[in-house]
């Protein structure tokens, strides 16, 4: 197993949003997270990416193995496309960016400042960053936002290649990407409302 979550409780603003989430993510597979807006998919992904600790439960296999693409593209706007990828590759002790440029058809834009890209081009560059990390577990939050149909195809192809190379992906998305793997509706883990606190009642 490449990643395992065992009875994870995750919080937002200190309040549990999902409780006792368990899943296994084997190599060469994607796990697609489903569920309505606000249920806690981003919170779960942030926890898997190590940006916040779980309240309870254990996560195995995530440390130093996750590359995370959040809602924001996380680009440096004054650096060019190639410089952004090189910067990101070096953070992970690597230097190869050509396959990432090619996979997302960014070659012709490589000398353009990231701040001068369209929203969809920025998203392609944000996703291309995952490829230069060399990390086996891609964690992706709504990766296809701003992408046109062709770019969704490029993204799906990049994920398929990553899985074929032994990687895995955990993806929150509302669209069908046609990947090998399972879907997990996290609504079943919705946290129970907190018990009423007597202290609060004094002031209500
Ligand atoms: N900074 C915050 N402080 C407190 N609560 C927050 C904060 N950010 C989000 N929340 C709440 O946490 C809950 C879970 O949000 P989360 O972003 O994880 O949901 P989601 O399933 O990813 O939603 P969406 O599909 O809309 O992206 C929501 O009810 C949201 O209102």
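Sequence proposed for the structure above (204 residues):
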């Amino acid at each position: 197993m490449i990643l395992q979550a065992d009875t994870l409780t995750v919080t937002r603003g200190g309040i549990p949003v999902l409780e006792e989430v368990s899943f296994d993510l084997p190599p060469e597979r994607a796990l697609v997270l489903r569920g309505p807006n606000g249920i806690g998919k981003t919170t779960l992904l942030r926890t898997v990416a190590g940006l916040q600790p779980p309240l309870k439960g254990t996560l195995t296999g995530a440390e130093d193995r996750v590359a995370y693409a959040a809602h924001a593209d996380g680009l440096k706007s004054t650096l060019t496309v190639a410089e952004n990828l090189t910067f990101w590759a070096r953070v992970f002790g690597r230097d190869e960016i050509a396959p990432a440029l090619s996979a997302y058809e960014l070659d012709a834009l490589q000398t353009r400042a990231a701040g001068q890209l369209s929203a969809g081009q920025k998203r392609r560059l944000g996703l291309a960053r995952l490829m230069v990390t060399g990390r086996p577990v891609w964690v992706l939050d709504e990766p296809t936002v701003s992408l046109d149909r062709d770019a969704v195809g490029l993204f799906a192809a990049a994920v398929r290649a990553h899985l074929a190379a032994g990687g895995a992906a955990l993806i929150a998305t509302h669209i069908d990407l046609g990947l090998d793997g399972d879907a997990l509706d996290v609504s079943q883990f919705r946290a129970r409302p907190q018990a009423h606190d007597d202290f609060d009642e004094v002031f209500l």
